[in-house]
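Predict the assembly for these two chains.
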Amino acid sequence: MIEIIVLIILGGLCLGGGLGVVASRNVAYATICLLIALLAVAGIYVMLLSEFLALVQVLIYGGAVTIVLLFALMLTRAHELEGRQDNRQRPIAICVSLLIFAAISFATYTNEQASATDRVSAPLKTLGTELFSSWLIPFEITGLILLIVLLGVVIITHKEKI
Amino acid sequence: MSLFYFQIISAALFSLGVYGVLARRNAVLILLAIELMLNAVSINFVAAAAFLDPQNFMGQVAALFVIALAAAEIGLALAIILRLHRYRSSVNIEEINLLKG
């Protein structure tokens, strides 16, 4: 029973933060709302017994991504757009997102439901072993992608004209 | 508690992200909405793996990859936005139509 209450609180924080991201007129407030939503997602990971994932979420999203986004907002003076952050497609966008939500919810609802009785916590050692044995090549490719992105970012933001 | 609640949260978060991508005109705010969508997908992965196949950690590994690639994506996208702002002095995507035929 208490799990349901915690889940409702976390889901409310998550969706409230998401609503703030897409509805806020101030870009700095939108970023803070994103931070709230991401931390709530970390809480949902804890509820799913994925503590390591929650730790990574807080570290990378809460620590790195939000700060980088705030820096980008500061450097691009995005507040000049303040007052009207939505474009003309807004009614269509509302319809499309509601349709997507209805479709996913219907597909989920008609499926058979899995119960919560057989969840197990993943020990960190097992997760690491799994990651470095059967997922080794994707892991290395991810590292390569991060290196390429680092080089690309340096080249793109270089002062000289191309 | 069942898988249904997590999937509803995930679907709602994904729809909010879709709305943000379609309706915003500031490039940085579109990036924020993309982050919302990526997180929704991660929730779905982890919840499905935790409920349907608890002995297998595929969902957590997939979510880890999503997080790593999202970090890479946001770095690259912000570099492009900074470059764009330097040349066009704007991050309004309605004014960025160089490739329009």
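Chain A is about 75% helix and 0% strand. Chain A touches chain B through 80 residues (CB under 8 Å).
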